Amino acid sequence: MILRTRVHAAGIAAAAALLGLPAAGPAAAGPTPGTDPVQATAPAPMSALAAQDQVEAFLTAYLKARMGTTEDATPDEVRKTFLTPELNRALTAWAAAHPAQDPVFRAPNAPSSWTFRGAGRDTSSVVVTQRWGDGTTADVLYTVRPGDLLITSIADRPATG
Fold first, then answer.
1. Order of strands, edge to edge, in the sheet holding 122-131?
2. pTM of the predicted model over 0.85
3. Rounded CA gap, 62 and 70, in Å?
4. Which tens digits make up the pLDDT trace of 56-84?
5. How far apart are CA 24 and CA 106, in angstroms?
6. Is 124 helix (H, G, I), strand (E, B) or coil?
7. Which is nearest to 49 in space by CA: 19, 85, 27, 17?
């Protein structure tokens, strides 16, 4: 029972650190004698909030870079930072096949706003509802890899349910 509590406390601390929040609750001490120290320090599973935060950070940075309102990075540099190399190559290929469209937004222009929701029980999947000024919307499914929070896929039509 003690091991479970410590793993839980470590998970809370890891989630707080990931979100840039101060850790709440007692700090986890070293392993209890007779317990497996590897189990005591196992990483906590990714939360749905962590995946949503990562997708929002990507979309915000990408939009700023695309609009030229940041000197920090180009859209390609933002993609390289947040996306796996495989996804980045797939978006480049998609852009070549759709020259008038943005490969991330799947439209000729950027959405005016977006909202997020989790996709079922999978904490690594996030549905982004993109909204444009004319009232149209599009749902896009993002998948985030738990280990490093890189985005591994962007799909036009997310599965419902």
1. 113-119, 122-131, 137-144, 151-155
2. no
3. 10
4. 999 999 999 998 887 778 999 999 999 99
5. 40
6. strand
7. 19
